[in-house]
Design a protein that fits this description.
This protein is an all-alpha fold. The protein has helices at 2-19, 27-35, 41-70. The protein has one domain. It is built from three helices and no strands. Helix 1 (2-19) runs antiparallel to helix 3.
């Protein structure tokens, strides 16, 4: 079960990192202005930063727990 959750978080992190756009790109701004889905570009960037940090922290905890189970 823990291994399945780890795989899910791994795939989620890969996808969320691909969503991140360089600061110079206006792709996120134009997408946010056209669809109004993510709100303002700065709030969308902040949300992606928080989600990425939580995902990385969760992945580290799961990897640590799985390492303890294997030893």
């Amino acid at each position: 079960m823990l291994k399945l959750f780890g795989i899910f978080i791994n795939i989620f992190l890969i996808l969320i990192i691909f969503l991140r756009l360089p600061q110079e790109s206006e792709g996120l701004e134009s997408f946010a202005n056209q669809s109004n889905l993510l709100g303002s570009p700065s709030s969308a960037q902040r949300f992606l930063n928080i989600v990425t940090a939580v995902g990385i922290f969760s992945y580290i905890l799961i990897a640590f727990q799985m390492n303890l189970q294997n030893n």
